[in-house]
Design a protein that fits this description.
Largest sheet: 5 strands, antiparallel
Number of strands: 12
CATH class of the largest domain: Alpha Beta
Shape: rod-shaped
Protein name: histidine kinase
Distance between the termini: 47 Å
Structural class: alpha+beta
Order of helices and strands: HHEEEEEHHHHEHEEHEEHHEE
Keywords: Kinase, Membrane, Phosphoprotein, Transferase, Transmembrane, Transmembrane helix
Organism: Roseibium album
Number of domains: 3
CATH architecture of the largest domain: 2-Layer Sandwich
CATH topology of the largest domain: Beta-Lactamase
Strand content: 15-25%
Pfam families: 2CSK_N, HATPase_c, HisKA
Helix content: 40-55%
Number of helices: 10
GO cellular component, one term: membrane
Length: 453
């Protein structure tokens, strides 16, 4: 199983890792910048020392250096500076007698100052040489002044500068890490509140979460509330179905059991066959009721996303009407009136077939003795399709229409129907974006079953 880290740790790493990378890059840049800066500072210090020495030699003839010059030489940028001054004839005028090894050679007329790297008494040094035309004690010509300093002093300075920068950057990163860690902890507090709200939900309590949440989790809460609503609706539907099934099947099942007992206790074969026929009829009625209950339950699962089948409503009506004609050819005429143009709809083909069949079956069962004709017609506009089932039977009053549309509603105490036919039709229509309307005719009843195209 893939390991999932905490959200707090993930956010902290996402924020700190780039910062550490930037800090590292900044540190490298700072190191290079420190080296360049230190080199420039030290080189300028050497140049200043050389100018001071040259000036004092010119004024004193090499006999003495001014106090300020000696101060510069004793501690320039953290360390002593060595020097010497040569006359045009190569005679040392002032300074240390032993020069560094590796001083660049200069031509007779070359007056350009030169920085160089050399070795002095086994140590690496950085030096500066300048050549100046001047007169000392009546002797004129080009005098050469050379100053140098141990390179280790520069490295110590750079290391000290880098250490300070490292301590500063580390302190900033550490402080920032603590701020991020505790900031995220405080920022995620609303999620803890949300978790507590979810923990309060159970199978008995599925109400939506109403408490304020951050914008970033509003989508999660919205989805969760929708799921809670769907679960609540499914549980209510299941409870309703169980209640309806238990209520409606109790009497038919009791009747089947009673008939079964009577068959077993029949005094003769003739009585047994008669009671067996009654048992079969009762079992069929019970099976029919159970099928209606299951159909009514299935209509609840129809949704715009699940009903995606595209089919010809003309062909569907032709098949339904032909089936009823074969069953009722001698009693009732079933007429079909559809346009020549083929009309296609998108929906649950099986449930639409069931709905239309229920309308025709309802007319056959409750049309009365004067029923002789049922007309099925089709009306289509740009957005909807309406199937009209009209009969010339006894019809229903407005009050009876309201009763018939209710679950298990019976308009007559002697009715042998399940009371679910019209509720099934109405729910199928609603699930397809339409509806069911019943109108008392003169005579008969008109049912208008409308669905969205």
């Amino acid at each position: 199983m893939k390991r999932i880290y905490s959200l707090r740790l993930r956010l902290t790493l996402i924020i700190l890792v780039p910062l550490l990378f930037v800090a590292g890059a900044t540190g490298l840049w700072q190191l290079n910048n420190a080296r360049v800066t230190a080199g420039d500072v030290f080189d300028r210090s050497l140049q200043s020392a050389a100018l001071a020495v040259t000036n004092d030699v010119a004024l004193s003839g090499g006999d003495a250096l001014a106090p300020n010059t000696r101060k510069i030489l004793s501690d320039t940028s953290g360390g002593p500076v060595f020097y010497h001054v040569y006359a045009p004839d190569g005679v040392i005028v002032a300074g240390y007698a032993t020069p560094p090894v590796g001083i660049p050679l200069a031509g007779d007329g070359d007056l350009n100052p030169v920085y160089f790297n050399a070795e002095y008494l086994g140590r690496d040094v950085r030096g500066f040489r300048m050549r100046t035309r001047m007169q000392v004690d009546g002797f004129s010509g080009i005098f050469t002044t050379t100053v140098w300093q141990d390179v280790a002093i520069r490295e110590t300075f750079v290391e000290d500068l880098m250490l300070r920068s490292l301590i500063t950057i580390s302190s900033i990163i550490t402080s920032l890490a603590l701020i991020v860690w505790f900031g995220i902890r405080i920022g995620l507090h609303p999620l803890n509140d949300l978790q507590q709200a979810i923990d309060l939900r159970s199978g008995a309590v599925l109400k939506p979460i109403q408490r304020p949440v951050p914008v970033e989790v509003e989508g999660i809460v919205r989805t969760l509330n929708r799921l809670l609503g769907q679960v609540s609706e499914a549980m209510a539907t299941q409870s309703e179905f169980i209640s309806n099934a238990a209520h409606q099947l109790r009497n038919p099942i009791a009747g089947v059991l009673a008939l079964a007992e009577s068959v077993r206790s029949a005094p003769s074969d003739a009585d047994m066959r008669e009671r067996a026929d009654d048992l079969v009829d009762a079992a069929k009625e019970t099976s029919h009721l159970a099928q209606k209950l299951l159909t009514y339950e299935r209509t609840k699962s129809i949704s715009p996303t699940s009903a995606k089948e595209n089919f010809s409503i003309n062909d569907l009506l032709v098949g339904i009407v032909d089936s009823f004609r074969r069953k009722n050819a001698d009693t009732v005429a079933v007429d079909l009136r559809i346009p020549e143009e083929d009309i296609s709809v998108t929906g649950d083909r099986t449930m639409i077939r069931e709905a239309v069949s229920n309308l025709i079956d309802n007319a056959l069962k409750h049309g009365g003795s004067q029923l002789s004709e049922i007309t099925v017609s089709l009306e289509a506009v740009s957005a909807t399709t309406t199937i009209v089932v009209q009969d010339n039977g006894k019809g229903l009053t407005d009050a009876q229409i309201q009763t018939a549309l209710q679950r298990f509603g019976q308009v007559s105490e002697r009715s042998d129907g399940s009371g679910l036919g019209l509720p099934i039709v109405e729910r199928v229509a609603e699930r397809h974006g339409g509806g069911l309307k019943l109108h008392a005719g003169q005579p008969g009843l008109e049912a208008r079953f409308t669905i969205a195209r």
